[in-house]
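Exercise 7 asks you to align residues with tokens for two separate proteins.
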Amino acid sequence: MSKKPAMVDPEFQALTQIWLTAIVSLIFCHQIAARIPTGASRLVSVLPVIYLFTTLPLRLSSIHLGAPTIFYLVWLGNFKLLLLSFNQGPLSATAFLRFISVGLLPIKSKQTPSPESSSDHKRPFLLLLKCGLLAVIVASYKYREFLHPYLIMALYCCHVYLGVELILAITALPAKALGVELEPQFDEPYLATSLQDFWGRRWNLMVTSILRPTVYHPVRRISTRILGRSSWALAPAILATFLVSGLMHEVIYYYMSRASPTWEVTWFFVLHGVCVAAEVALKKAVAGVGSCTGGFGTLTVGFVVVTGAWLFFPQVTRNGLDTRAINEYSIVAGFIGVQDEPRRLASRLVIKLGSSSSFSSSSRACSCSSS
């Protein structure tokens, strides 16, 4: 019998302790903090939980265990708690199980249930296809020394997209199993027709949904009072939103690398904020631009990829995060009993994801039939 990698056990123990602590902390928020009057008093009551959510992920060193935990707790979780302090956001007026799942997971429950569309039936198939594509990309890293740097960077871009979407989809399965109808987390960003469409309606919509109430709407209210209801009032809100997103990515990079920030990723988001603000102003100023989107899709994705290679990925490669992430796949393969066979690993992941999707669909069907 092959011995499991020694580094896996302590990492999983730390992960278990972190998430058990997070669950207990949210139980406190639901049972006690949420009953305190909104405002400064409730904010003070949740500050210890915000402290725990901020410090606990520092115990993790794994990229694939640490990055989602940092994202869910340090960013999404803390922002949701800040909104809860003022009786806003997804945690206000929420039942217990939904409160815990929404507070800990990258999900947003639908306010009004919608009938299933054809895209809902295609989504499990697309996820399985993307899982296979990710496995192919990981397998190609074995020949990285023979690949052109530009091709490697293109693979990294695809890897980030596929990896983030699949991780978010997998971690949303517990909520789906409970019968919670969820908003989409991604909406095929490669089909974006503009930067506004890419960032606002397609890419990582969980970040979009949390940045709107915490940053965009407050800044827009202030700028509207100063600048009036002109298109200029939107620019400060857009820039502030992208700036906060950039700073939170710097935080994630720091947690994973423990290296001092060099701010390239912040400038990446500031650049895109400027471009989105200019795009919105142009659409408002020039009639008909919004309808002429046929040729902008490729330009949009190309701009994201090129600027990502320039500003988003240097901190990743400089600190060796890419190498660590690639090496972890072999550790995961060894842990689940698949040694040096990415295709077999992909098959197992596809089967597990497919069975989980089937379980989720069955649970939803049962809940519908019982109601």
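Second protein for Exercise 7:
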Amino acid sequence: MRHQQSPLHVLKRLRISYRVIQYGRSYSQNSSGGIAQTARRDEIAKLKERFDFPKATHTIWQLYRDASFQTQLQQGAAPKVVLHGWIDSPPRKVSRTRAFANLRDVQFLYRTAEQIDNEKHQASDEDVATIQLFEDLTAKSADINSPGVALLRRMKQETCVCVEGHVCRAKGNAPWRLEIVVDRITILNQAEDLVSQMRGAKDWDPKYRYLQLRSFRLQRALAMRSKVATLIRSVFEGHGFTEVETPLLFRSTPEGAREFFVPSRTEAGKMYALPQSPQQYKQLLMASGVHRYYQFARCFRDEDLRKDRQPEFTQVDLEMSFVKASDVQDIVESILVRLWKEIKGVELRHPFKRLRYVEAMSRYGIDKPDLRSDMEIYDLSEFATSMANPDYPVFEILVFHAENSKLPAAVSAPDGSPTLRTPLSHRIRLSKEEPSKWLHRCVAEFDLKLVSDLETTASEIMKKFDIRDGDVVYSCTRQQMPFENPTPLGRQRLQIMQETMNFSEKDLAPLWVIDFPLFTPTETGRVVNGYVEFDYSRLVATHHPFTMPSIDSLPAVLNATEDESSWVDARTIFGQHYDIVVNGVEVGGGSTRIHDSSLQRLVLSRILQVPGIRTHVEAGEMEPDNPFTHLLNALTMACPPHAGLALGFDRLCAILNGSDSIRDVIAFPKTQTGADPLVGSPSRVTDEQLGVYHVQLKK
């Protein structure tokens, strides 16, 4: 019995035979004769085909979109072409000698809205993502029963092939459709059965993300992302910006989010931190004399993940010297106007609407309101004051004007409490018989102090805000300066919009939210009777600690230097921060920066109480534990006034793509746990590897 050879041994012999044939020698090491020699020669020929195949003459896209090629077809020609790609669908055998299949190739050219409109093709981009292949073996002399002959009918779905053939019009109801009459098909790489099984699955295993990325939807999303980056760069270049790359190996600084650390091999016990943003480096660039800077920056934050967050993400970062907030906002508006015009074919009206933070919170219950709906929250302070909690005195309502008796789940709940401070979000629907019933319940729930009797107050409220029979009224309380964000009524407004309103891609409501509180009191973690508890004596920066106070708030900030025990009231101090919001999504945020070293030191040391920083430092005095020494030193060196902003590039692309999740516009996203199953990260490392970096794991 002949000993079975290992695959490795066979491969070695194939390599030897390949070299022999390559140099034109007929020598064979197989002593069994010509049959084995012929078989090996065929095997080597197939191997060569996989690496030495003809160059593609066209892409499917070009066959459909190239005007000169279309002219040839109209004149009756059947041009010979070579295409590369994958078998997109399982072949369909219509007889012993005839078969059909679809080919999908690799090139996807993202076209702008203007290009699509100008070309006015009958077929959509998705229609021309594939082309039909037709194989007719009737006139061929090849033995179709021979397993060594590459036939379309034998192809597995997703097999990688090179197709040679002639183009003609396909028969059927779509006169624009083309097909390739196959002369020769070469397998470049065979697909496993698992590939076709994955194609039919509803939920993709993230280990096979590269297969999912072959879909038209994700190919289009990645092409769109590339086009968006190109357009943004063109706007920056047109306004005199310089693209500068900043380091990824930074140091740990307290900016709010948890950081990712990289241990140093050369300095035991020390670590780099991956940047949460290039904020400090770009301010250093302003001190360096770079007038207008931008970059597509990779950022890292060790946060709890959700559909619009990833541990690593991309932001479009910009900074400008000798400017004010309006200058930055003009640049950002020009970017968004250009993107929506070229990607979506929509003209954005600009300048964009502006809302102060307090107004956004009081009218819409959130600092990133979706203004596609005119539904607002009404402040009833002129009619009543809540005495239930002194920190939440403002009594307010949200009214859903019902147009029919059947209401969606987000709205209908005729029984129970009309307030949202109870564990369940109940609401009440008005009736003719008891029009003041909702207010009666609110008086008890919120311990309301009314300016008039209950019946009169209810009647005046309903008249002023046009509340009618059948409407649904939601009632709640909030802080005078709302730090609870969103408020209960703000959350309810969003839920109603999501479940009862439909919007088209052309329904757009971009706006700037400005004049944010500079500082935010910390949450204690306690919720008492539905009320979130805040500690107003412990403040954090609302956005980051480098934001300039508003001019009117400067005296209150500077007052912190007069008395060590002076208390800064977060409810009265505002910053020069601005967020750009599109349809309820915060696309970016920026601010005018503090460019005065003394003021920046005061904010960090006295108000935010960052360890290691003193309020006053004598010339030459060292602060070894100060994490911001580099920035404070730069500000003392005549750093100019500057301002900037960062756009969330992933989130912006998701909006333009019409996606609910940024995962759709990222090639290799992480899971909800921050893992990448495709490559198996994060992965374990050995004790020996850790030892090189002076790191030891706790047992």
